[in-house]
Amino acid sequence: RRARCGPGQRPVGRGVALPAGPDLRHFLRAAAAGQPGPSPELPPEPGSTPGAPKVYLETYGCQMNVSDTEIAWAILQKNGYARTKELEEADVVLLVTCSVREKAEQAIWNRLQHLKALKARRPQARAPLRVGILGCMAERLKEEILHREKLVDVVAGPDAYRDLPRLLAVAESGQQAANVLLSLDETYADILPVQTSAGGRTAFVSIMRGCDNMCSYCIVPFTRGRERSRPIASILQEVRMLSDQGVKEVTLLGQNVNSFRDLSEVQFQSVAAPGLSRGFSTVYKAKQGGLRFTHLLDQVSRIDPEMRIRFTSPHPKDFPDEASVLQLIQERHNICKQLHLPAQSGSTRVLEAMRRGYTREAYLELVHHVRDSIPGVSLSSDFIAGFCGETEEDHQQTVSLLREVRYNVGFLFAYSMRQKTRAHHRLQDDVPADVKKRRLEQLIATFREEAARANAALVGQAQLVLVEGPSKRSASELCGRNDGNIKVIFPDAELEDAAESGAPGRAQPGDYVMVKVTSASSQTLRGVPLCRTTLSRAAASH
How many CB atoms lie under 10 A from the CB of residue 361? Predict the structure, then answer.
């Protein structure tokens, strides 16, 4: 269902303008299927001048790339560029790329062939079209991109977006320009991303960049660099801005959010490192100092009691025994009772080869602890089928883990070997493609069977749903998500407002609606709407 870019990141495919709310979720699903994303209207560009060079952005990969697109656009907008949703109008085309699987990179090579033809037929009266490759693929394959496809004018890695105006100026002179230097401290903390859809009710907020975990299968540490966190003050500023704009759900985003560590405040730099839970380990030494994720989550959740807060993706090893994050989730009505716990495999032997830092038993103990701490929690996970050396017995252990945990949401993929990773240097990609395919199909079938059972348990219950917009399949129905991040579809009807005594009205995007669930599948709940309400009122009456 998705291309991975670190645990728990949702996929993105081709798209012109990244929407929010239901359009963003549709965009992500379309991307996973290799289809073009939707092209909704772009918001007006304040201060854009007639004759400004027009830039067209396409995003591939994960939610982090959605965030990167917004950062790149914010930088270009401040430097006099205008945004277009029409490819034919563009003076500059920038592809924000993914490098996590071979299929993701092949999509970019294919897209470049299309852009090559577009360049060739561009009228001579217009300035030459400039094409840029941004993000993880730029970082991994700079030389190959510049030499294999002469049509690429600009190559910029994830830490080089500030340099885009200079790189594009160099390209204007007819030269190729590249900057793929990785930084130890770049977080773009001072750049408030430009939301790419007017009126969006959901948003991603990047809280950190890079990853230090060095899982043996993962390219992310090599394309996004070492882990570093944004100052909490800049994150809170961005969330407040989103609240003022009417955003009703914010997802805190990072490769490993629960190892967040803000070192910007001197007085907290000597704080002791939290201990790991029993059965978990890391490849790096404990990191002292800094304000941690619990403090950030606490502060963010206080900004707006009517704004839902989610986060992705945490690493199982970074839920310490004192469970302060879990306690906070349980206590705060606006922190969603939903956790992404990327397992990757159900076999301790494979987990060791992956360098995940835990055993099957330790992972299951964490799952039980989470469910004891947060009653009714919704769980999601990532799984890789056919990793190096995986036997049929290893695979069946993953199947049994899916059955035992019964996740509500799952992201499952066949293993794709990546250069530079530890697996590429030390292990053999020895599971045949047809075996990977068969195992993946069995994992997907098992997941769907168990998810259907998990969701069926919600039938008859009332669920608070944040309305995102009309259902894609029927204009007479609305679509939204419950606290557990499961899609809920219900009829668009006149509803009483639980908070007011006024006339009934129809729910709008951004409204909270109480819905009684009448049926469930592995991916969707259906129900009847009861009333419009608020997040605080629903929590008080629960």
Answer: 10
**pLDDT digits over 255-295, tens only?**
999 999 998 886 677 676 777 777 888 887 777 778 999 99
pLDDT in tens, 473-526: 999 999 999 999 999 999 999 999 877 666 789 999 999 999 999 999 999 999
Q: How far apart, in Å, do the first and last CA atoms of the chain sit?
A: 34
| CA dist 16 → 69, 84, 94 (Å) | 10, 8, 10
Report how far residue 141's alpha carbon sits from residue 514's, in angstroms, rounded to the nearest whole number: 49
Question: Mean pLDDT for the chain?
Answer: 87
For 198-225, the three-class secondary structure string (H helix, E strand, C coil) is CCCCEEEEECEECCCCCCCCCCHHHHHC
| CA dihedral of residues 72, 76, 82, 85 (deg, nearest 10) | -20
Strand 487-491 versus strand 524-533 pairing type: parallel
d(CA 299, CA 293): 10
Q: Which two tokens stand for residue 211?
A: 């990853």
Using an 8 Å Cβ cutoff, are 422 and 216 in contact? yes
Average pLDDT over residues 370-392: 97
User: Is the bond preceding residue 313 a cis peptide, omega within 30 degrees?
Assistant: yes
The pLDDT assigned to 25 comes to 41
Cα torsion angle, 250, 20, 226, 366, sign: positive
Instruction: Report the run of H or E that residue 177 belongs to, with start and end.
Output: strand 177-179
| C-alpha to C-alpha distance for 451 and 473, rounded to whole angstroms | 22
Residue 426 CA neighbour count, 13 Å, CB half: 10
User: What domains lie within the chain, and their CATH numbers?
Assistant: 54-179 (3.40.50.12160), 202-457 (3.80.30.20), 461-541 (2.40.50)
For residue 169, is pLDDT > 80? yes
pLDDT of residue 196: 52
Report how far Cα 339 is from the mean position of its chain's Cα atoms: 13
Which residue is it, tokens 């629903």? 538
| For residue 46, pLDDT beyond 60 | no
What's the pTM value of the predicted model, to 2 decimals? 0.85
Q: How would you list the strands of the sheet with 249-253, edge to edge?
A: 202-206, 249-253, 308-312
Pick from 399, 418, 423, 421: nearest CA to 410: 399
Query: Tokens for 428?
Result: 């053999």
DSSP 8-state assignment for residue 406: -
- HSE-up (13 A, CA, CB side) for residue 470: 5
257: left (phi over 0), alpha (psi -120 to 50) or beta: alpha
Extract the tokens encoding 12: 């993105």
Higher confidence at residue 48 or residue 486?
Answer: 486
In contact, 410 and 401? CB cutoff 8 Å: no
Residues 440, 443, 446, 451, CA torsion sign: negative
503: DSSP letter: -
Position 6 pLDDT exceeds 50: no
Distance CA 500, CA 496 (A): 8
